[in-house]
Amino acid sequence: MIKPEAQINIKNLRLRTYIGFNDSEKQNKQDVVINAWIHYPASQAYDTDNVDNAVNYRTICKKMIAHTENNRFLLLEKLTADLLELCMEPSNVTFAKVEVAKPHALRFADSVSLTLSANREN
């Protein structure tokens, strides 16, 4: 019997927040682009067609938006780790990965980004 694992992808969530430690970064919101990958066993969800057996990506996304927009961060590491923790909150999530990019943070680059991932320990 096949037991596929679902992978939810939140792609290019574009938000604005205070991120950085330079004076201009502390005083002006900057754009960030967030990508998240969330894995969970899908068999219960598709067998029952019951939303309670799935991971609610809308709830996770709303939490990510609120956390990003309502806080200040010195480092990409902190924001990314916080968002990863939000993705891992549902108990049926087995793996999550979050990438946060700061467009135009470097003079000749499109963006700079940081990626963190986590596995659920059994």
Compact summary:
With 122 residues, the protein is an alpha+beta fold.
Largest sheet: 5 strands, mixed
Total E-strand runs: 5
SSE succession: EHEHHEHEE
* Spatial sequence of strands, sheet with the most strands: 3-1-2-4-5
Distance between the termini: 22 Å
Structural class: alpha+beta
The CATH superfamily name is GTP cyclohydrolase I, C-terminal domain/NADPH-dependent 7-cyano-7-deazaguanine reductase, N-terminal domain
What's the rounded overall pLDDT mean? 93
- The CATH architecture is 2-Layer Sandwich
Relative helix content:
25-40%
**Beta-strand content estimate:** 35-45%
Number of domains: 1
The CATH topology is GTP Cyclohydrolase I, domain 2
Low-confidence stretches: none
How large, in whole angstroms, is the Cα Rg? Answer: 16 Å
CATH class: Alpha Beta
Count of helical regions: 4
The 3D shape can be described as: elongated
What does the model show?
The protein has 4 helices and 5 strands, in the order βαβααβαββ. It is of the alpha+beta class and 122 residues long. The chain has a single domain, classed as GTP cyclohydrolase I, C-terminal domain/NADPH-dependent 7-cyano-7-deazaguanine reductase, N-terminal domain (GTP Cyclohydrolase I, domain 2), CATH 3.30.1130.10. The longest helix has 13 residues, at 57-69. The two termini are 22 Å apart. The model has no long low-confidence stretch (mean pLDDT 93).
